[in-house]
Amino acid sequence: MRIVNILHKRLPLRSNIANALVNFSEHTVSLVAMVSDQVRNGRPVIGYAFDSIGRYDQEGILNGRMIPRLLKALPDALLDEAGKLSPARVLQTAMQNEKPGGHGDRAHAAAALELAAWDLIAKLDDVPAAVAIARQCGREADTRIGVYAAGGYYYPGEDVAGLRREVECHIERGFTRFKIKIGGAPLGQDLERAQTAVDTAATLGDGARVAVDANGRFDLDQAIAYGRAMSGLPLMWYEEPCDPLDYASNSELAKHYRGALATGENLFSAQDVRNLVLFGGMRPGLDIFQMDSGLSYGVTGYLRMLHEMETRGFSRRAAFPHGGQLLALHVVAGLGLGGCEVYPDIFQPLGGFGDDARVEDGHVALPSLPGFGFEGKAELWQELTALKP
Fold first, then answer.
1. Is 239 annotated as contributing to ligand binding?
2. Which keywords does this Swiss-Prot/TrEMBL entry list (predicted)?
3. 109 in a domain, yes or no?
């Protein structure tokens, strides 16, 4: 078993939407194809993956540093003791000669390669990626995964009626939990948006069904003001109010806001998570961690993050990764995390799950296709297969 080629492609996202800080119309994603010397049905077995949605591709890091390192490596350097491809060794090799710290975009680039290795391993074993991930961790994959619909972005000219229609559409599709954006409008307007989403979701029954996400827009005083203004709303969580590395502000906000806080989407290493747990005021049994394997060195990096959480009293069921696509779904199912975000309509062709995926009472079934199941998402599969070996 050896890797004979690794290919990269830059893919633009089709999304003209914005959150409190970012417009996504210019964002791109790195697609990678890891080509093996194994043959099935007359064709080489290829592992595919991509980095996370909502940033820019890492073409320079991948083609200039990481892919050459993997292709120059001795075949045995990428294999485990049983002679199977090892995602951890793929990551280790890709990161050769990199200094500690400064994770940034290289964490995303390395994640795409590590996740491609998982897709390849699972295809060789003819199992979903979640099953391959779970086996390596000595557990069984979850077969039914809780999901929530992420959206509620700021669209040009849209009012609360448009937001209401969006939530109603998600309800019709089987979703029972939702996330919307705040911080991109004045407080009064954002409160009206949040109240509209809560009232619309309340048709499903009592309970917290809506989360709000500020995308790191606020300083501490603004975050506290929003928290006080929203204190009467039954929210699932108040997400990333302040800069993601401002642990002191997150800790202070936790003293004022009694509901759940969520953060971690923009943390890319186990060291970042350790600092969040030690200094960010996170409360076991209440607050939510949102690290994304596609941004943080893949499953190997994510396991290190979980270790930092679990050894300090936090459950992995408090982890709801940012992602919104098939990669995140399989990682959630394979590691037994709390739930998965999904982008049903946006960030195409990456957002959402397979074309035949059905949401029932806020849950989806684990896809049965081998690997991450990209073949079941026609538009994405067309882009991936354009990466010719």
1. yes
2. Magnesium, Metal-binding
3. yes
Mind giving me the DSSP string for 153-169?
-B-TT--HHHHHHHHHH
> Residues 212, 305: one domain?
yes
The CATH number of the domain holding residue 64 is 3.30.390.10
Contacts of 213 (CB under 8 A, 6+ apart): 19, 179, 180, 181, 182, 239, 240, 262
Angle between helices 298-310 and 104-125 (to 10 degrees): 110
> What's the pLDDT tens digit per position in 224-280?
999 999 999 999 999 999 999 999 999 999 999 999 999 999 999 999 999 999 999
> Residue 142 belongs to what domain range?
137-377
Q: What is the mean pLDDT of the chain?
A: 95
Based on the structure, what is the number of domains in the chain? 2
Give the count of beta carbons closer than 10 Å to the beta carbon of residue 299.
27
Active site residues: 181, 322
59 assigned to a ligand binding site: no
Do 56 and 379 form a contact (C-beta atoms < 8 A)?
Answer: no
Is 119 a known ligand-binding residue?
no
In a domain, 132, yes or no: no
Contact by Cβ (8 Å): 281, 95: no
Q: For position 302, which CATH number holds?
A: 3.20.20.120
Which helix (H) or strand (E) covers residue 68, if one does?
helix 67-72
